[in-house]
Design a protein that fits this description.
With about 280 residues, the chain is mostly helical. Helix content is about 75%, strand content about 0%. It is built from 13 helices and no strands. Helix 4 runs parallel beside helix 7 and helix 7 packs antiparallel against helix 8.
Length: about 280
Amino acid sequence: MAELDAEQAVTYADRSGDAFQRMSKRTTHADALHQAGRRPEAETLFREAEQMQKEMQSPYPLLYSLGGFRYCDLLLAATECAAWRIWMESGARNEESELIEACRDVSKRAAQTLEWALQVREASLLTIALDHLTLGRAVLYAAILESSNSHLLTAISELNTAVDGLRRAGQQDDLPRGLLTRAWLRGLERKFTGPGSAQEDLDEAWEIAERGPMKLFMADIHLYRARLFGTGISHPGSGVKYPWDSPERDLEAAAKLIESCGYGRRKEELADARLAILGSGSV
């Protein structure tokens, strides 16, 4: 449904002749396709939108603000999946170089768009926060792929800045993005429970998502719970007790939401998590 609505918005924007609307509605449509799991089509549309951006504002040739964040989210998607597999101790590292290079490319993009945002007198708090979130994600994923904590302080700084910025911007519908990524970082730091922990971030994200209800975020939270606390460095023996019902129940709830919402982007991740936790990858 979201894909059809977004496609129709592009049609009306094209009829309007408004250059900004034509570009921005393509990023909305591309993001809807990405969330539905139609990544190649989404990437084609993002590239088309970025070409429009270049023609419209030649000094700013990259997609920025929310559209830029969404494009970076897609560009990091394969890396995110690979990082989760490594976290769950089920991933090979034979694609490391290409994926780490993707992190570097995205970091360059976000650093540039952040620089542009900071040059504006009344810069958008949301735009700045999303750029910091992208930078934090790129560093976090690269750290997991490289099995290195050398840049962990950078990730901590970027993600704390992102979460604080999303709070100041008053964007409840975007705040869970930052909380989820920071929860993963806190897991990497072995801060699983207690104040300033992965559990704390996941519980806050759940309170926000459940009120909506924001079903895609709810699916993500179920997946994060299972992967962070049911696999990887939090395996039995680490002293970490599962704070919710069980990884199995969270995976079951995630599967139902992914199916009912057409959230195709997460199907591969769900299969990976089920394989790691249940020994079965079927969705």
